[in-house]
Design goal:
The complex is a heterodimer of chains A (389) and B (242).
Chain A (H helix, E strand, L loop, with lengths): L4 H10 L1 H33 L6 E6 L10 E2 H8 L6 E2 L2 E2 L1 E12 L6 E9 L3 H4 L4 E5 L8 E5 H6 L8 E4 L2 E10 L8 E5 H7 L6 E2 L1 E5 L6 H9 L6 E5 H45 L1 H9 L4 H27 L6 E6 L4 E6 L4 H28 L2 H4 L4
Parallel strand pairs in A: 6-11, 8-10
Antiparallel strand pairs in A: 1-13, 1-14, 2-12, 3-4, 5-6, 5-13, 7-10, 8-11, 9-10, 15-16
Chain B lengths: L1 E2 L10 E12 L2 E13 L4 E5 L6 H8 L7 E6 L2 E2 L5 H11 E4 L11 H6 L9 H14 L15 H13 L5 E5 L7 H16 L5 E4 L3 H5 L3 E6 L2 E7 L6
Parallel strand pairs in B: 4-9, 4-10, 7-8, 8-9
Antiparallel strand pairs in B: 1-3, 2-3, 2-5, 5-6, 10-11
The chains are: A alpha+beta (389), B alpha/beta (242).
Chain lengths: 389, 242
């Protein structure tokens, strides 16, 4: 039979000052751990949500990203005729796109940061069902007009609706604001692909990627097989969601590794805090423990009891840490996308899974911090411990 | 029947034979108990007296299975406890021994009820049965109205009465009391001894008590003196004949 849990719960409350130190140590560690993972999760979610499972992105074979890819107009036409491509009437839903990186002043600091400017076709908005114009209108093909993602509007100075912006040697007018549902497109500035190529003096009729809307997600296999086996093309085809997932992998991995590293280092401190609390609990309660053992509770009961006490403290710390980090959910920040070298805004995503992971991490610290003192508690001979004051 | 010559007839509740206990303190060996013999029958009340360091508490610890002798044997109700494994000894203590300590040794974060209930958690009694037993034990020590009090809310005498209730609640084979009145004023000490006396005479409990207090020892059937590790009969107390 186990020692009643109320004994441990009340003991923690009675020794609250030393318990609070351990609780706060664990709470801080869990908070940082969950925050880092929420950052990685948010960044990944932002990029992955940019893609649609019904879209395929075509790039030159061997190119990891759009930045180093090239697809000619002739190849675009071949892609338009590929099987499984969705059509709006008779027009295939295919958009040849060009991306450039341009420097703009940040509203917050006034310093220059890179933004991704995407030249698209007028069909781009039909292809991407997560994008909708919320203010103004979409650009007119052939004109130097811009539509700006809502995060780009918040991030960079001078992109208010109706204002003119100079970059790449051209003067552009902001004619619309679009909402891309929190995806990476929200950090982009869109314009006509041909106009962008002209302004940047790039070869006409050469795109960096082609995005095609498929009739259904299952159509990817037929579409990909047709393109990769066509001798006129040397292209790489990915489902758009998978492409963006790969794009997020580098930075997400770095954030996660950093998160684990920081949490590990902080965790060592927190474990020492828990150890200290539990060792002093065991020392202060030596006579209580001896009495309990004298009454007939076995060593295992005492160990379980003290490990439970450490777990209880750890759980409190975990809950406090999770509650502290919860308000960060949805908090938007920005970072440079290592694949495009441009600024991407993303929101922290504190998910139930991450909170569970945080609690699990706290309990792990509790076990590590609880077992050695619990073992010490039962090692002391009862007859000696009964004489402790 | 209480004997210290090792010539008991084998029917005693407690049989101690040639008990030796040595401690090592640095390079010095301390021989606390030397070839001690003892027979105590059921329902006896024995008081152990002697100067500090004479081995009284050591003897009590050995009888209660809290410590192991260097040599010799202890049989309680037929169980040879000096040969038991640690786990068996723990279970044996739960079943057979009721401890009463000088400093009461109540768990400060548990109420009187919860303190008394502790030994019953090691039995198969249902919650309702445990409640009945605890209420009965607390009523026997006159603390039925204090069961939800924490130790800090009780006087020293009341705390010791809770400790006695804890010792008797599981109907232990015998009670071991180490200076039960040592931390109490004279009036409270008298009440505690009155209570222990009642447990022996009205409820047939076997009680082995260590004490420095001659007034407490007077209540015992037999007073035994421990001197230099050996038991010497000190005659009958006022509680009955030896």
């Amino acid at each position: 039979m186990a020692i009643p849990l109320v004994y441990n719960v009340r003991s923690v409350r009675q020794r609250w000052n030393s318990s609070v130190v351990a609780v706060l140590g664990i709470a801080g560690t869990v908070g940082v751990f969950v925050a880092m993972l929420a950052m990685a999760r948010g960044f990944k979610a932002t990029l992955v949500s940019s893609g649609s499972p019904r879209n395929a992105i075509v790039r030159r074979a061997g190119s990891d990203s759009e930045m180093v890819s090239a697809v000619s107009l002739d190849q675009l036409h071949v892609i338009e005729g590929a099987p499984a491509v969705a059509r709006n009437g008779s027009a295939p839903l295919v958009s040849g796109e060009v991306v450039v990186i341009a420097g703009f002043n940040l509203k917050a600091t006034g310093t220059v940061a890179n933004a991704q400017v995407r030249g698209v076709s007028s069909k781009a908005i039909d292809i991407r069902d997560n994008v909708r114009v919320v203010q103004g209108r979409f650009f007119n093909p052939g004109l130097a007009e811009l539509v700006v993602g809502r995060y780009a509007l918040k991030t960079y100075a001078g992109f208010d609706l109706g204002s003119t912006v100079k970059f790449g040697g051209g003067t552009w007018t902001v004619v619309g604001i679009f909402d891309a549902g929190g995806s990476a497109f929200d950090s982009e500035i869109w314009c006509d692909a041909n106009v962008l190529s002209q302004v940047y003096k790039r070869p006409q009729n050469v795109f960096q990627s082609v995005t095609a809307r498929l009739e259904s997600p299952a159509g990817l296999t037929a579409f990909k097989d047709a393109l990769t086996s066509d001798p006129r093309l040397s292209v790489q085809v990915d489902r758009e969601t998978e492409y963006y997932e790969k794009q997020s992998r580098g930075l997400t991995t770095v954030i996660r590794v950093l998160g684990f590293l920081v949490a590990f280092v902080m965790g060592i401190g927190a474990v020492f805090g828990a150890l200290n609390t539990m060792y002093s609990a065991v020392a202060e309660r030596a006579r209580e423990i001896a009495t309990i053992r004298a009454l007939g509770f076995g060593r295992s009961s005492v160990i379980v009891s003290f490990v439970f006490e450490a777990l209880f403290i750890a759980l409190l710390g975990g809950v406090v840490g999770c509650l502290a980090v919860l308000p960060m959910n949805g908090f938007t920040t920005g970072t440079m996308n290592w694949q495009t070298f441009s600024h991407v805004a993303f929101a922290f995503k504190v998910t139930p899974g991450l909170l569970g992971l945080g609690i699990g991490f706290a309990l792990l610290m509790g076990v590590i911090g609880g077992v050695p003192p619990a073992v010490r508690a039962v090692r002391r001979p009862i007859a000696f411990a009964l004489r402790e004051l | 029947m209480v004997k210290v010559d090792g010539k008991g007839n084998g029917t005693s509740l407690v049989q101690v034979r040639e008990l030796d206990k040595k401690y090592q303190r640095g390079s010095e060996e301390i021989h606390v108990l030397q070839g001690l013999n003892l027979d105590v029958g059921s329902g006896e009340f024995v008081a152990f007296m002697g100067p500090s360091g004479s081995g009284k508490t050591t003897l009590l610890n050995l009888l209660g299975g809290l410590d192991l002798p260097t040599s010799g044997s202890i049989k309680v109700a037929g169980d040879e406890i000096t040969r038991m494994s640690a786990n068996k000894l723990t279970a044996w203590r739960a079943r057979h021994v009721g401890f009463i300590f000088q400093m009461y040794n109540l768990i400060p974060v548990l109420t009187a009820f919860q303190n008394v209930e502790l030994p019953l958690l090691l039995t198969k009694l249902s919650k309702a049965d445990r409640k009945k037993h605890v209420e009965t034990a607390l009523a026997m020590v006159g603390l039925a109205d204090r069961m939800n009090h924490y130790p800090r809310q009780l006087s020293g005498g009341q705390e010791q009465r809770v400790a006695i209730a804890r010792a008797i609640v599981a109907d232990a084979t015998f009670l071991l009391a180490d200076e039960p009145t040592g931390d109490l004023d004279r009036r409270s000490a008298g009440e505690i001894m009155e209570l222990l006396d009642r447990l022996v005479h009205e409820h047939g409990k076997t009680l082995l008590m260590v004490t420095h207090d001659p007034r407490a020892a007077e209540r015992a059937h037999v007073v035994l003196h421990l001197d230099k590790g050996v038991l010497v009969e000190g005659g009958a107390g006022g509680g009955g004949e030896a």
